[in-house]
Predict the structure of L-fucose:H+ symporter permease.
Amino acid sequence: MSSISSPGKEITKAKFTESRFLVTMIFVTSLFMLWGIAITMGDVLNKHFQHTLSLTKTQSAFVQFAIFGAYFVMGIPAGLFMKRFGYKNGVLLGLSLFATGSFLFVPAANAGSFTLFGLALFILGCGLSTLETVAHPFVASLGDQRTSDQRINFAQAFNALGAILGPAIGSYFLLRNNVEGSTDLTSVKVLYIVIGSVIAGIAVCFSFVKVPPLTDPHVEALDPDAVNIDIKPGKKLIEHKHFVWAVIAQFFNVAAQSGTWAFFINYGHEKMGFTDEVAGNYMVLFMAMLLVGRFVGTFLMRYIKPHTLLAIFATGNAVMCLIITQSLGWPSFIALLMLNFFMSIMFPTIFSLGLKNLGSHTQQASSFISMGVVGGALFPFAMGMLAEQNVATAYYLPIICYFVIFLFGYKFYKVR
């Protein structure tokens, strides 16, 4: 493994990863795609439940509340489990919960109960929370810390691919045959039986993967930007201010993301006059912008420091939100599509910057940053209340979130 030499000596170039980690890297990267599918399919469920269960926009936001609320509940337990039993077992726990939640859609659909759907979504969300808590430090440990930003953004690019597949699959199976007044939930039941079966199969396959011994790069080597920083011995996690700000920034980042995604189809239907299916198909393009942004962002990080790029992209999204709120037709809808391009690097970059140089606190810190995702459980309710009157007006709220993210990227990312 490439390492950082002592101050005053030449710093060797860090590799992206090593050949011994390749198989593990492939499997762990696939996890990013899986939870991308699950989360964005929740946005399609949001709209589908408005029809089949006669919910208001505010009520349907409980879909996001159940999923992202699970992140808050499961964050610390997932981190403790990972620390006690290792990354691989943490992944298997996450996949098991994911599959269980999916299978629980069957009794929920049979009963036609939104409460039971909420329980199924919560358990599914616990699985997603566990996977995210484990996968980020897992990917970070598969090589030198100096390239951890690149590895996490690369893996998150496949999360973006999953985010494209989620609404594509959901729109085809759930929105394509939407009939006003229909209460048929058969399509939901069948879809999640398939999803649960696939996830269970992946868990079985992953159980046979042999993970090479890992040396946590956050313990082994300091980031080159922090080589000359005096890290206080025995420093408590809460005393690492860049970590605290990462949790805050992640809270607001996922708040903006979940609210934006939850009402994308509503915006297309109400402001552009699209049918739900057409708006759902545009959501595929919307998520494709996330994928494009991840690859572009990973490339730009070779020339622009991650924290600087984060601040630039946060500014871009604040401007896009202002255009969206004006209801200018296609210019506003294009700005809505662009939100995902600028949002693309935020989650992985905030995560990676927050884990810098935390040593033995890395796994615990991953749990807390994952818990910051609870912002996604709360924000859709606020946006939903505004969207009841005018869905465009609701997009003023994310500007607050992007301002906080800008501050983190501009100043508060620094390791002290």
About this structure: The two ends are 26 Å apart (CA to CA). Residues 1-10, 217-231 have pLDDT under 50 and may be disordered. Residues 19-412 form a domain with the Growth Hormone; Chain: A; fold (CATH 1.20.1250.20).
